[in-house]
C-alpha cells in the first residue's frame, strides 16, 4: 500500500505541474484579450494619428529596460531550475530593479503627456488607459517577484521545486510581450 | 555538469535578448523614418519580436512536451 502511494505521488507531481502551466497559459490568454481590445481601441478612435510631442527616444529606452528585465527574469528562473540559489537571488533583485526603473520612465512620460495630450483628449484617453493598465500589470508583477524573492530567501525553492519562480517569470514575460505591441502602437505608428 | 547546463541556458537568453534589442531598435528607426503607412512594417515586426519571448523565455513548448 505504501509502495502504491509513493508511486502515485511520484506520478502526481509532473501532472500537477502540467496543470499549473496550462492554468497559467489560460490566464495569460485571457489577459491578452484585454490588451488586444485596448490596442484595437487606439486604431478605432484615433486611426493611425499620433501627436508629434510623443517622446519616442524615452519610449525606446523604457522598452529596452523592460526587455533587459525579461532577460534577468529568464536568468533567475534558469538559476532556480539548476539549484543556483545565489544566482536566483541576484537575478530576481535585478529584475525588480529594472521593473521599478521602467515604472519611473512611465511616470516621466506621464508628466510630459499631461501637458501635451491630457486624459480628456482623444489620444490622451487611449494613451493613459493603455499605459496605465500596463503599468498596473508591471506593479502586480513586481509584487509577485518580491514575494517569490522573500520565499526564496527562506529556502523554499530547493530540490527542483520552483514552480512559483517559473510562474512569476512567465507572468513577467507576458507583461513584456504586451509592451512589445503597445510601444509601436502608441509611440511609432503614424 | 549542472553549471555547464546553466551557462548554456544563460547564453541562449543573451542571444534572444540581442535579437530582441536589434528588433526594437530597427522598429524605432523605421517608425521614426516612415512618415505614412508605417504600421504595415511595424505590425509584423511586433509579432516577430514577441515570438522569441514566447518560445524561449516563456517556454510555450512545455505545454506539448512537459519535460522540455
Structural key phrases:
heterodimer, A: 85% helix, B: 68 residues, mainly alpha, elongated
Description:
The complex is a heterodimer of chains A (190) and B (68). With 190 residues, chain A is mainly α. Chain A is built from 5 helices and no strands. Chain A has helices at residues 2-46, 56-81, 85-116, 122-153, 163-188. The longest helix of chain A has 45 residues, at 2-46. The mean pLDDT of chain A is 90. Chain B has 68 residues and is mostly helical. The mean pLDDT of chain B is 91. The interface between A and B is large, with 40 and 40 residues.
Task: Provide the fold topology.
The complex is a heterodimer of chains A (190) and B (68).
Chain A: H1 2-46, H2 56-81, H3 85-116, H4 122-153, H5 163-188
Helix pairs in contact in A: 1-4, 1-5, 2-3, 2-5, 3-4, 4-5
Chain B: H1 2-33, H2 39-57
Helix pairs in contact in B: 1-2
- Uncertain regions spanning at least 5 consecutive residues of chain A: none
Largest contact between protein chains? A-B, 40 and 40 residues
Class by alpha and beta content of chain B? mainly alpha
Shape of chain A: elongated
Largest sheet of chain B: none
Characterize this entry briefly.
With 190 residues, chain A is mostly helical. Helix content of chain A is 85%, strand content 0%.
Amino acid at each position: 500500500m505504501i509502495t502504491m502511494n509513493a508511486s502515485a505521488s511520484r506520478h502526481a507531481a509532473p501532472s500537477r505541474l502540467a496543470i499549473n502551466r496550462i492554468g497559467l497559459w489560460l490566464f495569460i490568454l485571457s489577459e491578452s484579450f484585454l490588451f488586444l481590445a485596448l490596442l484595437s481601441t487606439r486604431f478605432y478612435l484615433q486611426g493611425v494619428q499620433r501627436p508629434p510631442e510623443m517622446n519616442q527616444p524615452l519610449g525606446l529606452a523604457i522598452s529596452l529596460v523592460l526587455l533587459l528585465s525579461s532577460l534577468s527574469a529568464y536568468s533567475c528562473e534558469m538559476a532556480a531550475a539548476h539549484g543556483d540559489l545565489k544566482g536566483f537571488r541576484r537575478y530576481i533583485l535585478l529584475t525588480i530593479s529594472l521593473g521599478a526603473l521602467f515604472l519611473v520612465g512611465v511616470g516621466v512620460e506621464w508628466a510630459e503627456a499631461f501637458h501635451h495630450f491630457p486624459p480628456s483628449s482623444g489620444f490622451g484617453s487611449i494613451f493613459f488607459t493603455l499605459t496605465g493598465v500596463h503599468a498596473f500589470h508591471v506593479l502586480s508583477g513586481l509584487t509577485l517577484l518580491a514575494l517569490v524573492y522573500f520565499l526564496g530567501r527562506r529556502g523554499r525553492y530547493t530540490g527542483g521545486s520552483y514552480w512559483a519562480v517559473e510562474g512569476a517569470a512567465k507572468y513577467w514575460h507576458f507583461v513584456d510581450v504586451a509592451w512589445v505591441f503597445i510601444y509601436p502602437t502608441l509611440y511609432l505608428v503614424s | 555538469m549542472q553549471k555547464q547546463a546553466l551557462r548554456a541556458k544563460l547564453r541562449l537568453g543573451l542571444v534572444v535578448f540581442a535579437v530582441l534589442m536589434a528588433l526594437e531598435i530597427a522598429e524605432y528607426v523605421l517608425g521614426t523614418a516612415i512618415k505614412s503607412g508605417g504600421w504595415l512594417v511595424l505590425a509584423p515586426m511586433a509579432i516577430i519580436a514577441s515570438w522569441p519571448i514566447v518560445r524561449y523565455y516563456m517556454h510555450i513548448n512545455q505545454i506539448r512536451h512537459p519535460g522540455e
